[in-house]
Structure formats: C-alpha cells, structure tokens
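User: Hey, quick favor. My workstation is busy. Could you predict this chain's structure for me?
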Amino acid sequence: MTEAAAERAGGVLGWEHARTPDLRGRTVVVTGASDGIGREVALHLARWGARLVLPARNRAKAEGVRARLLRETRADDGADAVTLVDLDLADLGSVRRAAREITGLLGSGTADLVNVAGVVSPRRQETADGFELLLGVNALAPMLLVESLLPVVHERVVLVTSHAHTGGRIDLDDPHFRRTRWTLPRAYSRAKLTAMLWGLDLATRMPTGTELQLAHPGWVVTNLQNASGNAQVDRLVTAVSRPLAMTATQGAAAVLLALTQPLPPGSYVGPDGWQHLRGRPTLIRRSEQALDHDLSRQVVDWMRGEVGLAP
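Assistant: No problem, here it is.
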C-alpha cells in the first residue's frame, strides 16, 4: 500500500493519527469474514500484508471473499495467503473440528484471533447442542473456539461484542429461555453481556505476552439487521437505517484498532458518538454489570460447563 493510500485508509477508519500497520509475516484468524464488518476487517488486514485464515459457515460466500482478497491485494504468498476453514458456530462439533484444523494449519506458527461472527433471529431457535441460538452462537461457541486456540495466539485476541450488552440480564437458572419469555432484544442483550463477562475474565487469563481486546462496531447496516422474518420489513429497516448508520468499513474501524494499535489490555473500543452508535473509535465504558468480576466468574464457570471445557 502506498503512503497516500495508507493515509486515505486511515481517514476512512477514523484513526488517521495512528500508524498504518505492517502485518507482513503475521497470520490472523477472522471469523465472520463472509460478509459485512468481518469482510471489511479481512480486506484491510490483507491489504496490510497479513496472511488470513477464514473460518466460515457458508463456503460459497467465503470462496467469493477469498477470490476478492487475492485479486485486490496481489498477495505475495499467492493462494496460501487466504485459507478457508469450515466452521458452524451453531454446532460445537464443528467448532472443535475447526480449532483442530486451524492448529494444524499453523503448525509451529501462531496467529492473532478476531471473532466477528454473530447471529440474530426473529424467533427462538436452538443450536445443534440445544443452546438458545443467540447465546450459543454469540457467546458459547466463540468461547470454545477461542479458548481452544489460546496456545497458538501470537499477540492478540479481539472479541467483537455490542453495546447492547448494557440492556442484558443474566439468569443462570434459565439462561436459554426455556421457561421465561423469549424476545429478540432480551436474548441478544443477554448473549452480548455473557460475552462481555467472559471477556472480562479471559483478559486476566491470557497467556504471557498476549492480550485480549473487546470491540463494539457501532450501528452498522449489515445482514444482521435482516432479522424480522419478513422480507418487506427487512428492506424497510435497511432503507431507514442506511442514511443514519455507519458503513461496514466504518464499523470495522473499532475492530481493526483493537487488533493493531497500542491499547491497555482488556480495553473496550467503540464509536465516540451518542450512545456509541456511530463515530470515531475510542475507549468507551462498559456497563456496571459487565465490570462485575464476581458475576463474571459465575458466568464463566457456567459457560465452561456448557461447552465442555475443563474447570
């Protein structure tokens, strides 16, 4: 990337004051790169020289992104610059297989990890393992994947969360809404608060020389907004949101800053605007619940039991 192009990229991301990263020789594992924010994260990382491993559920979409990355970046490593791995976060068996494959691909090497993948749903559904879908895909499966890969982390793990966690409530007596009423806002905010509490705990357990960062992309127009179950409603929501929300590139800014720039370990990065819906990425404050270390330990103990990790 030329110096002028780097300056333009920094301006788009909202952190043109920071040095453009040189990621040549480094590998980054990015989930959720088939679309939206994850795709933009992968594009920038490839432009900055990183080798990418992209775990994905939709192989066809992932192949399209891989072709674009190789075409636009003219990667020095050729076809090996972008490797795809099958991953379905709604199935812990798939998560375990993906973790083993990624470890094998790295060999004696290491990688940074960025978990962008997430899901919303217009109705209550369950994963292959019987978890409420949003909690399973947005919190439990990422925990299993990331913690299985901790031995091969190079420098950083970035968990993409959401400021929706501020409305979340933990209920370890009925975490999967089997007895209490399920609504999308309640389920989504609970899943994101669960992920935040896991992140609070994980930040204290990272291997020596590595660190964890949390990132909130802000209000971004992506396919996650197509969650009503009604195509016409989804189109209306997208049309209304587009003039107000940030682009996927702008949403990727907080994630990329959390991965590549000097930050205090365990920081929470997000837009600096009203309610952190949009703006330039900066350090932002999480909810009081998401700072509760006692609650975090309780939640993490429960999560580890759910996904079969040792206490």
